[in-house]
């Protein structure tokens, strides 16, 4: 039984998370196919065909998928599901939106946020904001898995796999796309960046948050934030790292003025190296940090920027 | 228009959870329980819609043991009109929850099902999407703003990289994200009043639903904690470590 991966794409490019979902599918060991659904997605399909391990790409190219609405996508996915043993997508907001809907249409459950493939029927996933890890076995004929991409290393490139067109199907069922606001940023994307510099309430204001820009610029880092900083209105929500925000696992994570609430730790504990800069030496963030600096961030940050 | 708000009783988010002694579950013996925070946000939104005259009735429903009446009472105290407990000792998987809720929705015929985006215990983030699929309704997940205009809902969703606004023809499913609203606290007189309100109870087993278990939890463990590192005395020492020991900066 093969695996089918739902490819996520934005502005004509395959999402970087997909190369990591392919890695998870390779651990399962079944042949891997990819489904690209969208409008005018030749280039996306060509990119998906080069993901190392994909043996075939199915393309449903139709205006009904232009806005990536869950309703028609889930119908399409469920229609193809019968021929597969596994359906996979990244546990991004896109994957979380579409995949459970497709699973229910196919009459099976879903295992969310898989961080490890133990064997073809057994998977590990975090629960309670990562405070615990559950090992679950599924005997469903079709296993639907959302993959925590940061838990897997990206696959490389291969010679392109064959691409086949499939019939478009699925209706919007009364859902209509109105508009989207994407924050334009000079910085790398948070979930894909090699270095992340995150700020918390300790920064004290929206203006002070820009202090992170200097260090981030020197390190070509993405900027993140704690929920407290988002709630205080310093930065928009898409920068939030944590249980209900983004899960990141960069090589280097620098937490500035972040106390380290459980739900924040859930989003960054997978980082290779964690640095904490905080005035309060009792802050829980120091319990997970590899290196800590205790002191005034308004002195330490500019010094760090200068010396990098 | 009626709004159905499914809620879940979970371990309070402040509790430090532990595995059970046999390592196959989460120890919930004598720990503080609460309504799942995202369900609380969904409920608050439903109550506000009713207060603005855009909904006629808010029905809150939960699937669980008799103990879950505590969370239903809490929901009545903040403004739900009716409460329904679907009683079972089984811990249902998300698809089984969605199938059970779909039955209730078919009976009650609400114009809107408002749910939390995920439960903070199982962290599945599935039930709303599955419910929408089973009903054939449109969905808007991760809502941070919701407006009702006649037979349509306009929903702003928080997604990776920004915001998306959708319009849904009602009936529809909407799942609440953190910033949809700030839930109110129940006032003491309302808590007292809620104690007298009836809670409807039905046995899940009498609903004749097909709810097979498809997954088995083999183990629940505490992840290997990160080792506490070192506090350094200077920025220079930090840069040295990152550059020469960890090799994570050039």
From TrEMBL, chain A:
<feature type="binding site">
    <location>
        <begin position="257"/>
        <end position="264"/>
    </location>
    <ligand>
        <name>FAD</name>
    </ligand>
</feature>
<feature type="binding site">
    <location>
        <begin position="240"/>
        <end position="244"/>
    </location>
    <ligand>
        <name>FAD</name>
    </ligand>
</feature>
<dbReference type="GO" id="GO:0009055">
    <property type="term" value="F:electron transfer activity"/>
</dbReference>
<dbReference type="GO" id="GO:0050660">
    <property type="term" value="F:flavin adenine dinucleotide binding"/>
</dbReference>
<dbReference type="InterPro" id="IPR029035">
    <property type="entry name" value="DHS-like_NAD/FAD-binding_dom"/>
</dbReference>
<feature type="binding site">
    <location>
        <position position="278"/>
    </location>
    <ligand>
        <name>FAD</name>
    </ligand>
</feature>
<dbReference type="InterPro" id="IPR033947">
    <property type="entry name" value="ETF_alpha_N"/>
</dbReference>
<dbReference type="Pfam" id="PF01012">
    <property type="entry name" value="ETF"/>
</dbReference>
<comment type="function">
    <text>The electron transfer flavoprotein serves as a specific electron acceptor for other dehydrogenases. It transfers the electrons to the main respiratory chain via ETF-ubiquinone oxidoreductase (ETF dehydrogenase).</text>
</comment>
<comment type="similarity">
    <text>Belongs to the ETF alpha-subunit/FixB family.</text>
</comment>
<feature type="binding site">
    <location>
        <position position="201"/>
    </location>
    <ligand>
        <name>FAD</name>
    </ligand>
</feature>
<keyword id="KW-0274">FAD</keyword>
<feature type="domain" description="Electron transfer flavoprotein alpha/beta-subunit N-terminal">
    <location>
        <begin position="3"/>
        <end position="181"/>
    </location>
</feature>
<dbReference type="Pfam" id="PF00766">
    <property type="entry name" value="ETF_alpha"/>
</dbReference>
<keyword id="KW-0249">Electron transport</keyword>
<dbReference type="InterPro" id="IPR014729">
    <property type="entry name" value="Rossmann-like_a/b/a_fold"/>
</dbReference>
<dbReference type="InterPro" id="IPR014731">
    <property type="entry name" value="ETF_asu_C"/>
</dbReference>
<keyword id="KW-0813">Transport</keyword>
<dbReference type="InterPro" id="IPR001308">
    <property type="entry name" value="ETF_a/FixB"/>
</dbReference>
<dbReference type="InterPro" id="IPR014730">
    <property type="entry name" value="ETF_a/b_N"/>
</dbReference>
<keyword id="KW-0285">Flavoprotein</keyword>
<dbReference type="GO" id="GO:0033539">
    <property type="term" value="P:fatty acid beta-oxidation using acyl-CoA dehydrogenase"/>
</dbReference>
UniProtKB/TrEMBL annotation, chain B:
<dbReference type="InterPro" id="IPR014730">
    <property type="entry name" value="ETF_a/b_N"/>
</dbReference>
<protein>
    <recommendedName>
        <fullName>Electron transfer flavoprotein subunit beta</fullName>
    </recommendedName>
</protein>
<keyword id="KW-0249">Electron transport</keyword>
<dbReference type="InterPro" id="IPR033948">
    <property type="entry name" value="ETF_beta_N"/>
</dbReference>
<dbReference type="Pfam" id="PF01012">
    <property type="entry name" value="ETF"/>
</dbReference>
<dbReference type="InterPro" id="IPR014729">
    <property type="entry name" value="Rossmann-like_a/b/a_fold"/>
</dbReference>
<dbReference type="InterPro" id="IPR012255">
    <property type="entry name" value="ETF_b"/>
</dbReference>
<dbReference type="GO" id="GO:0046395">
    <property type="term" value="P:carboxylic acid catabolic process"/>
</dbReference>
<comment type="function">
    <text>The electron transfer flavoprotein serves as a specific electron acceptor for other dehydrogenases. It transfers the electrons to the main respiratory chain via ETF-ubiquinone oxidoreductase (ETF dehydrogenase).</text>
</comment>
<comment type="similarity">
    <text>Belongs to the ETF beta-subunit/FixA family.</text>
</comment>
<dbReference type="GO" id="GO:0009055">
    <property type="term" value="F:electron transfer activity"/>
</dbReference>
<keyword id="KW-0813">Transport</keyword>
<comment type="subunit">
    <text>Heterodimer of an alpha and a beta subunit.</text>
</comment>
<feature type="domain" description="Electron transfer flavoprotein alpha/beta-subunit N-terminal">
    <location>
        <begin position="23"/>
        <end position="211"/>
    </location>
</feature>
